[in-house]
Design goal:
Helix content is 25%, strand content 28%. The protein is of the alpha+beta class. It has two domains: 75 residues, Gyrase A, domain 2 (2-Layer Sandwich); 151 residues, Cyclophilin-like (Cyclophilin), CATH 2.40.100.10. The strands form three sheets. A seven-stranded mixed beta barrel has the order 5-12-9-10-7-6-13. The chain has a four-stranded antiparallel β-sheet with strand order 1-2-4-3, covered by helices on one side. Strand 3 and strand 4 form a beta hairpin. The radius of gyration is 20 Å and the shape is elongated.
Protein backbone atom coordinates (compact mmCIF):
# COMPACT_ATOMS: atom_id res chain seq x y z
CA UNK A 1 0.00 0.00 0.00
CA UNK A 2 1.30 3.45 -0.91
CA UNK A 3 1.77 6.11 1.74
CA UNK A 4 0.79 9.72 1.22
CA UNK A 5 0.97 12.77 3.44
CA UNK A 6 -2.49 12.74 4.99
CA UNK A 7 -4.12 15.42 7.12
CA UNK A 8 -6.78 14.83 9.77
CA UNK A 9 -9.24 17.35 11.15
CA UNK A 10 -12.53 17.37 13.04
CA UNK A 11 -15.68 17.45 10.95
CA UNK A 12 -18.28 18.24 13.58
CA UNK A 13 -18.51 16.53 16.96
CA UNK A 14 -19.45 13.12 15.57
CA UNK A 15 -17.08 12.82 12.62
CA UNK A 16 -13.48 13.15 11.54
CA UNK A 17 -12.12 13.94 8.08
CA UNK A 18 -8.97 12.34 6.67
CA UNK A 19 -7.61 14.03 3.54
CA UNK A 20 -5.08 12.87 0.96
CA UNK A 21 -3.31 15.18 -1.57
CA UNK A 22 -5.84 17.43 -3.29
CA UNK A 23 -6.06 15.90 -6.76
CA UNK A 24 -8.20 13.41 -8.65
CA UNK A 25 -5.98 10.35 -8.83
CA UNK A 26 -7.06 6.72 -9.09
CA UNK A 27 -4.00 5.62 -7.10
CA UNK A 28 -5.10 7.87 -4.20
CA UNK A 29 -8.62 6.47 -4.35
CA UNK A 30 -7.23 2.93 -4.28
CA UNK A 31 -5.07 3.84 -1.28
CA UNK A 32 -8.16 5.15 0.53
CA UNK A 33 -10.13 1.98 -0.20
CA UNK A 34 -7.29 -0.23 1.01
CA UNK A 35 -7.09 1.83 4.20
CA UNK A 36 -10.83 1.35 4.72
CA UNK A 37 -10.36 -2.40 4.33
CA UNK A 38 -7.60 -2.32 6.95
CA UNK A 39 -9.73 -0.24 9.34
CA UNK A 40 -12.76 -2.49 9.01
CA UNK A 41 -10.84 -5.73 9.42
CA UNK A 42 -8.28 -4.82 12.06
CA UNK A 43 -9.05 -1.51 13.75
CA UNK A 44 -12.72 -0.60 13.83
CA UNK A 45 -14.22 -4.05 13.35
CA UNK A 46 -15.94 -4.08 16.75
CA UNK A 47 -17.39 -0.58 16.57
CA UNK A 48 -20.21 0.91 14.52
CA UNK A 49 -18.86 3.54 12.16
CA UNK A 50 -20.19 5.07 8.99
CA UNK A 51 -17.24 5.34 6.59
CA UNK A 52 -17.63 7.59 3.54
CA UNK A 53 -14.88 7.71 0.87
CA UNK A 54 -14.86 10.29 -1.94
CA UNK A 55 -12.12 11.40 -4.33
CA UNK A 56 -9.24 12.27 -1.97
CA UNK A 57 -10.94 12.07 1.42
CA UNK A 58 -12.37 9.72 3.99
CA UNK A 59 -15.02 10.67 6.55
CA UNK A 60 -15.56 8.54 9.66
CA UNK A 61 -18.82 9.12 11.52
CA UNK A 62 -19.87 7.87 14.94
CA UNK A 63 -23.56 8.68 15.31
CA UNK A 64 -23.74 7.26 18.84
CA UNK A 65 -21.26 9.45 20.68
CA UNK A 66 -18.96 12.46 20.21
CA UNK A 67 -15.47 11.69 18.92
CA UNK A 68 -12.38 12.14 21.08
CA UNK A 69 -10.53 13.89 18.26
CA UNK A 70 -6.92 13.91 19.51
CA UNK A 71 -7.08 10.26 20.55
CA UNK A 72 -8.63 9.07 17.30
CA UNK A 73 -6.31 11.21 15.17
CA UNK A 74 -3.27 9.60 16.83
CA UNK A 75 -4.69 6.13 16.24
CA UNK A 76 -5.51 6.83 12.61
CA UNK A 77 -1.98 8.05 11.90
CA UNK A 78 -0.55 4.90 13.48
CA UNK A 79 -2.98 2.66 11.63
CA UNK A 80 -2.19 4.35 8.33
CA UNK A 81 1.57 4.00 8.89
CA UNK A 82 1.29 0.30 9.80
CA UNK A 83 2.14 -2.50 7.38
CA UNK A 84 -1.02 -3.68 5.68
CA UNK A 85 -1.87 -6.82 3.78
CA UNK A 86 -4.94 -6.42 1.63
CA UNK A 87 -7.27 -9.33 0.97
CA UNK A 88 -7.67 -8.47 -2.69
CA UNK A 89 -10.83 -6.37 -2.77
CA UNK A 90 -13.19 -7.51 -5.51
CA UNK A 91 -13.03 -5.07 -8.41
CA UNK A 92 -16.25 -4.76 -10.35
CA UNK A 93 -17.24 -3.34 -13.71
CA UNK A 94 -20.90 -2.48 -14.22
CA UNK A 95 -22.14 -2.22 -17.82
CA UNK A 96 -25.08 0.15 -17.97
CA UNK A 97 -27.41 0.70 -20.96
CA UNK A 98 -28.08 4.23 -22.20
CA UNK A 99 -30.51 5.42 -24.85
CA UNK A 100 -28.93 8.38 -26.64
CA UNK A 101 -32.06 9.36 -28.58
CA UNK A 102 -32.44 13.12 -28.89
CA UNK A 103 -35.71 12.80 -26.97
CA UNK A 104 -33.57 12.02 -23.91
CA UNK A 105 -30.32 13.76 -24.89
CA UNK A 106 -31.50 17.34 -24.56
CA UNK A 107 -27.95 18.68 -24.88
CA UNK A 108 -26.49 16.06 -27.22
CA UNK A 109 -26.45 18.36 -30.24
CA UNK A 110 -24.89 21.18 -28.20
CA UNK A 111 -22.21 18.81 -26.86
CA UNK A 112 -21.59 17.69 -30.44
CA UNK A 113 -21.12 21.27 -31.61
CA UNK A 114 -18.91 22.29 -28.68
CA UNK A 115 -16.68 19.23 -29.00
CA UNK A 116 -16.40 19.44 -32.78
CA UNK A 117 -17.57 15.83 -33.07
CA UNK A 118 -20.67 14.35 -34.64
CA UNK A 119 -23.45 13.03 -32.42
CA UNK A 120 -22.40 9.50 -33.35
CA UNK A 121 -18.79 10.23 -32.38
CA UNK A 122 -19.89 11.71 -29.03
CA UNK A 123 -21.84 8.53 -28.26
CA UNK A 124 -18.89 6.38 -29.34
CA UNK A 125 -16.48 8.32 -27.13
CA UNK A 126 -18.83 8.20 -24.16
CA UNK A 127 -19.36 4.44 -24.43
CA UNK A 128 -15.77 3.43 -25.15
CA UNK A 129 -14.41 4.65 -21.81
CA UNK A 130 -14.41 2.84 -18.48
CA UNK A 131 -15.19 5.28 -15.69
CA UNK A 132 -14.15 5.13 -12.04
CA UNK A 133 -16.71 5.81 -9.31
CA UNK A 134 -14.94 8.50 -7.26
CA UNK A 135 -17.87 9.38 -5.04
CA UNK A 136 -21.59 8.85 -4.42
CA UNK A 137 -23.63 11.78 -3.18
CA UNK A 138 -25.58 14.96 -3.98
CA UNK A 139 -28.57 12.62 -4.40
CA UNK A 140 -28.79 9.04 -3.05
CA UNK A 141 -27.15 6.88 -5.70
CA UNK A 142 -25.68 9.75 -7.74
CA UNK A 143 -22.27 8.53 -8.96
CA UNK A 144 -19.45 10.93 -9.76
CA UNK A 145 -17.66 9.13 -12.59
CA UNK A 146 -14.15 10.19 -13.58
CA UNK A 147 -12.12 9.26 -16.63
CA UNK A 148 -14.09 11.05 -19.33
CA UNK A 149 -12.33 11.64 -22.68
CA UNK A 150 -10.86 15.14 -22.87
CA UNK A 151 -12.94 15.87 -25.98
CA UNK A 152 -16.12 15.51 -23.91
CA UNK A 153 -15.04 17.84 -21.09
CA UNK A 154 -17.92 20.31 -21.31
CA UNK A 155 -18.57 22.93 -18.57
CA UNK A 156 -21.75 22.81 -16.53
CA UNK A 157 -24.66 24.73 -17.98
CA UNK A 158 -24.68 28.39 -16.85
CA UNK A 159 -28.31 28.06 -15.74
CA UNK A 160 -29.39 24.75 -14.14
CA UNK A 161 -32.66 23.14 -15.21
CA UNK A 162 -35.34 23.12 -12.50
CA UNK A 163 -36.03 19.46 -13.31
CA UNK A 164 -33.75 16.83 -14.83
CA UNK A 165 -35.60 13.52 -15.37
CA UNK A 166 -34.64 10.38 -13.49
CA UNK A 167 -32.05 8.30 -15.37
CA UNK A 168 -30.60 11.26 -17.27
CA UNK A 169 -26.93 10.81 -18.16
CA UNK A 170 -24.94 14.01 -18.02
CA UNK A 171 -21.52 15.56 -18.57
CA UNK A 172 -19.91 18.27 -16.43
CA UNK A 173 -16.24 19.16 -16.63
CA UNK A 174 -14.17 16.01 -16.20
CA UNK A 175 -17.12 13.95 -14.96
CA UNK A 176 -20.14 12.03 -16.16
CA UNK A 177 -22.99 10.66 -14.11
CA UNK A 178 -26.61 9.49 -13.87
CA UNK A 179 -29.41 11.35 -12.09
CA UNK A 180 -31.00 8.64 -9.91
CA UNK A 181 -34.23 10.62 -9.49
CA UNK A 182 -35.94 13.74 -10.81
CA UNK A 183 -33.88 16.68 -9.62
CA UNK A 184 -32.70 20.19 -10.48
CA UNK A 185 -29.35 20.00 -12.22
CA UNK A 186 -26.87 21.80 -14.43
CA UNK A 187 -25.13 18.94 -16.22
CA UNK A 188 -25.26 18.54 -20.02
CA UNK A 189 -27.76 15.73 -20.66
CA UNK A 190 -26.86 13.35 -23.50
CA UNK A 191 -29.07 10.31 -22.85
CA UNK A 192 -31.02 8.26 -20.33
CA UNK A 193 -30.05 5.09 -18.47
CA UNK A 194 -32.84 2.53 -18.19
CA UNK A 195 -31.44 0.97 -14.97
CA UNK A 196 -32.71 2.30 -11.61
CA UNK A 197 -29.62 3.47 -9.72
CA UNK A 198 -31.24 3.74 -6.29
CA UNK A 199 -34.05 1.70 -4.71
CA UNK A 200 -34.70 2.40 -0.99
CA UNK A 201 -36.73 -0.84 -0.72
CA UNK A 202 -33.71 -3.03 -1.42
CA UNK A 203 -31.23 -4.26 1.19
CA UNK A 204 -28.52 -2.52 -0.84
CA UNK A 205 -30.33 0.57 -2.21
CA UNK A 206 -27.38 1.46 -4.46
CA UNK A 207 -25.64 -1.54 -6.02
CA UNK A 208 -22.56 0.44 -7.11
CA UNK A 209 -19.74 1.35 -4.69
CA UNK A 210 -16.93 3.89 -4.70
CA UNK A 211 -13.97 2.34 -6.52
CA UNK A 212 -16.09 0.33 -8.95
CA UNK A 213 -15.88 0.83 -12.71
CA UNK A 214 -18.76 1.75 -15.00
CA UNK A 215 -19.03 1.45 -18.77
CA UNK A 216 -22.04 2.55 -20.79
CA UNK A 217 -23.35 0.88 -23.91
CA UNK A 218 -25.91 2.29 -26.37
CA UNK A 219 -29.42 0.85 -26.75
CA UNK A 220 -32.35 1.66 -29.01
CA UNK A 221 -35.61 3.11 -27.73
CA UNK A 222 -37.46 -0.24 -27.90
CA UNK A 223 -34.84 -1.92 -25.69
CA UNK A 224 -34.95 1.04 -23.31
CA UNK A 225 -38.72 0.63 -22.93
CA UNK A 226 -38.30 -3.10 -22.28
CA UNK A 227 -35.66 -2.47 -19.61
CA UNK A 228 -37.97 0.00 -17.87
CA UNK A 229 -40.74 -2.61 -17.68
CA UNK A 230 -38.30 -5.26 -16.44
CA UNK A 231 -37.01 -2.84 -13.80
CA UNK A 232 -40.52 -2.03 -12.58
CA UNK A 233 -41.36 -5.71 -12.03
CA UNK A 234 -37.93 -6.45 -10.54
CA UNK A 235 -36.56 -8.89 -13.11
CA UNK A 236 -33.93 -6.74 -14.81
CA UNK A 237 -30.38 -7.86 -14.02
CA UNK A 238 -27.51 -5.42 -14.32
CA UNK A 239 -24.47 -6.79 -16.13
CA UNK A 240 -21.61 -7.19 -13.65
CA UNK A 241 -18.06 -8.21 -14.53
CA UNK A 242 -15.49 -9.18 -11.90
CA UNK A 243 -12.24 -7.64 -13.14
CA UNK A 244 -9.86 -9.49 -10.83
CA UNK A 245 -11.51 -12.93 -11.06
Amino acid sequence: MSSYDISIRPFGIHSILVEWPDRVDEAILEDILEFIEHLEQHCLNEEKWEIVPAYNSLTLIDWEKPIAFDELKSKLLDWYAADKEGTGREKLLWRLPVCYDLEFGFDLKEVSQRSGRSVEEVVKLHTESRYTVYGIGFLPGFMYLGGIPETLEIPRKPKPRPKVPKGSVGLAGKQTGIYPQDSPGGWNIIGNCSVPMFDPKKEEPCFVNVGDKVQFYPIERAEYDLHKIEGEVGIYKVEKIILNA
